[in-house]
Amino acid sequence: MANTEKKIRAGIVGYGNLGRGVESVIKYFTDFELVAILSRRSPDELSIATPGVLKLHIEEALSLKGKIDVMILCGGSVNDLPTQGPEFAKHFVTVDSFDTHAKIPEYYKAMNEISSGSNLTSIISAGWDPGLFSLNRVIAQSVLPSSSGSTFWGKGLSQGHSTAIRMVDGVEAAAQYTVPLDDAVNKARKGESASLTTKDKHLRECFVVVKEGADKSKIEEEIKTMPNYFADYNTVVHFINIDEFNLNHNKMPHGGFVIQSGNINGNTQTIEFSLSLDSNPEFTASVLVAYARAAARLYSEGKTGAFTVFDIPPAYLSSESDENLRKNLL
Q1: If exposure means fewest CB atoms within 10 Å of the residue's CB, which of 31, 67, 148, 253 is most exposed?
Q2: Whole-number Å distance between alpha carbons of 95 and 131
Q3: Are strands 147-153 and 254-264 parallel, antiparallel or unpaired?
Q4: Can you tell me the mean pLDDT for 10-24?
């Protein structure tokens, strides 16, 4: 993708951990200009880090039509994106990191219908999983037929799962850590992961602060039986006080592995892709901005509707020219 003088004008929708992450990293993407930050909170309540950027209530979004090339949607996958995604796709080119794996097909269908009808472009589920890990699963399975693969997450704090816990009635604060089990990782590297169940591969460890008078046993049961998040996992819930939470759970590390292993002609072949992240929201934000670049390019070429990471040529993520990519990275 050739560099041009005209920068990609971006807006951020949602100013939680991910929205702040996008604001903090977008300055490193020199072909972008951050124009506006939108939130459900009053603009007067937002203390943003970037001078000259508009602060708007989310209901003022339509005032930005024609002034934004791509909206980066930073809401949660539980309650925000299922409604915000289609609503913004009516009026803007969008990119998001919708991460409820089981619901991606229906979310894609809704976004594709809206984006296609609006002659606009949307890229969904563009984080690191779903996202970069998804790409590596496809590549690994494609080049190693008759192999077995596993994905491991962590050890790290899951923003989506932590948010899901905070939605439980009576919860004041929560952090959920996904912990890969060493025995399962070693089996995957040996190509012995086919028999592993979801529970065999990970532990979900939750640290929860409850509101005064809340029923801890009811909260624990609701967490452990939550579909798409905890019901299929071994889940441990620790109840702690707010001081301990603020002292020990105020950072957001994460990471994980995609491992594919197979035996071809008697030779064991293993592919492994891994991430180790000091800041999950900042890294996810960086992925979103790169895919925002791709969304802007697709729209400029008249390619509308919804797309996933499987549909995007890697060159569309880069600000470098195709010639430079062939010369320096191929």
Answers
A1: 67
A2: 12
A3: antiparallel
A4: 97
**SS3 call for 268:** strand
Average pLDDT of every residue of the chain = 94
Letter string b/e over residues 171-206, b meaning 16 or more CB atoms within 10 A of that residue's CB: bebbbbbbbbbeebbebbbebebeebeeeebbbbbb
Rounded CA-CA distance 245/240 in Å is 7
Burial of 46 (0-12, 13-18, 19+ CB in 10 A): middle
The candidate with the shortest Cα–Cα distance to 174, out of 249, 235, 243, is 249
User: Tokens 């180790």 label which residue?
Assistant: 276
Q: With contact defined as beta carbons under 8 Å apart, do 223 and 158 qualify?
A: no
Are 41 and 326 in contact, with CB atoms under 8 Å apart? Answer: no
How far apart are the C-alpha atoms of 231 and 35, rounded to whole Å? 41
State how far the Cα of 192 lies from the Cα of 262, in Å rounded to an integer.
9
Based on its alpha-carbon atoms, the radius of gyration of the chain, rounded to whole angstroms, reads 21
Express each pLDDT in 236-264 by its tens digit.
999 999 999 999 998 889 999 999 999 88
In the structure encoding, which two tokens stand for residue 261, read together?
A: 């292993």
Element (H, E) at 62: none
Mean pLDDT of 100-106: 96
Distance CA 64, CA 43 (A): 15
Tens digits of residue pLDDT in 160-210: 799 899 999 999 999 999 999 999 999 999 888 878 887 899 999 999 999
CB atoms within 10 A of CB 253: 14
